[in-house]
């Protein structure tokens, strides 16, 4: 009887393994959507709490091979300790093939060794928050929140594939509307593509967590909130491609020719007369203030 029981256990585990393999094969070519997200998208999630949002996507897709989910908290010390369901969510994500990263600072994405060379179709940051350090209406706390979002935009804008988007779920009413997400995005060469009402019910199993303080595992009232979708302006994306080719090994003379093709509006000597608001349309590295371009211009002057 014992031998039969052992054999049945072994056979059931083999069947489970085979089922999982077949499951992955079936879902590999079948595109599945959950709201704005497709199983064919390469997705990066930043600032996850108990990983319930990424788990919701993975469960719907039937596979998480296209998902990279990250948290600021470390695994053993924070995530599992702070959130009751984190352990089971992480096990589900791992079983479905997700990439899991911990200790990831949302303002330093490009400095992370596992992220600096990767590109994504969707980069998601749900309800960014710099921590509970006073009333939400305090100007000092609003500055901290804005600094967090701005740092995130700076890194995420450089990690997008062609036609990629950055999604930020955020509250619409005061004082949260005073963060001015669109203004921060414009400073990073991003423009608002669409603003869609966010409904927690669209993502089965998702629980928005406070993430900070003694009540970190509790949810907070969402109220009126939206998913803000940003993308890189097309004209600026073209210039990004040019600069990547320059960094790939073009000669200084070829580089100078490329720079000269950029609109005179950006590189003319009258750039300083353009209003600060207008200047946010162009990334820092494409203007005369760019250290890279300044070095190239100096070399050109010396050559002449």
TrEMBL record:
Q: Which residues form the 25S rRNA (uridine-N(3))-methyltransferase BMT5-like domain?
A: 44-210
Pfam families, alphabetized = BMT5-like
Recorded hits in PANTHER family, A to Z, give: FERREDOXIN-FOLD ANTICODON-BINDING DOMAIN-CONTAINING PROTEIN 1 (PTHR11538:SF26), PHENYLALANYL-TRNA SYNTHETASE (PTHR11538)
Q: What is the name of the protein in this document?
A: 25S rRNA (uridine-N(3))-methyltransferase BMT5-like domain-containing protein
Q: Which organism encodes this protein?
A: Eruca vesicaria subsp. sativa (Garden rocket)
Upper classification of the organism = Eukaryota, Viridiplantae, Streptophyta, Embryophyta, Tracheophyta
């Amino acid at each position: 009887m014992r031998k039969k029981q052992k054999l049945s256990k072994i056979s059931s585990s083999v069947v489970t393994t085979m089922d999982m393999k077949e499951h992955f094969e079936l879902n590999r070519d079948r595109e599945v959507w959950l709201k704005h997200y497709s199983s064919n998208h390469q997705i990066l999630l930043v600032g996850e709490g108990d990983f319930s949002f990424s788990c919701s996507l993975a469960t719907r897709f039937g596979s998480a091979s296209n998902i990279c989910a990250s948290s600021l908290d470390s695994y053993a010390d924070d995530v599992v300790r702070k959130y009751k369901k984190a352990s089971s969510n992480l096990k589900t994500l791992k079983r479905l093939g997700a990439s899991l990263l911990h200790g990831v600072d949302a303002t330093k994405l490009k400095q992370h060794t596992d992220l600096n060379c990767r590109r994504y179709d969707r980069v998601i940051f749900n309800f960014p928050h710099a921590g509970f350090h006073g009333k939400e209406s305090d100007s000092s706390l609003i500055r901290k929140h804005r600094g967090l979002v701005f740092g995130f935009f700076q890194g995420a804008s450089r990690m997008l594939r062609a036609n990629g988007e950055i999604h930020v779920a955020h509250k619409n009413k005061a004082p949260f509307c005073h963060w001015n997400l669109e203004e921060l995005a414009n400073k990073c060469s991003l423009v608002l593509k669409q603003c869609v009402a966010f409904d927690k019910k669209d993502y089965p199993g998702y629980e928005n967590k406070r993430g900070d303080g003694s009540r970190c595992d509790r949810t907070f009232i969402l109220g009126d909130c939206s998913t803000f979708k940003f993308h890189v302006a097309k004209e600026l994306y073209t210039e990004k491609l040019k600069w990547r080719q320059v960094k790939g090994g073009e000669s200084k003379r070829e580089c100078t020719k490329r720079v000269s093709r950029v609109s005179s509006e950006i590189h003319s000597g009258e750039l300083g007369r353009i209003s600060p608001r207008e200047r946010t349309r162009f990334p820092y590295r494409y203007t005369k203030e760019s250290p890279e371009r300044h070095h190239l211009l100096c070399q050109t002057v010396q050559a002449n």
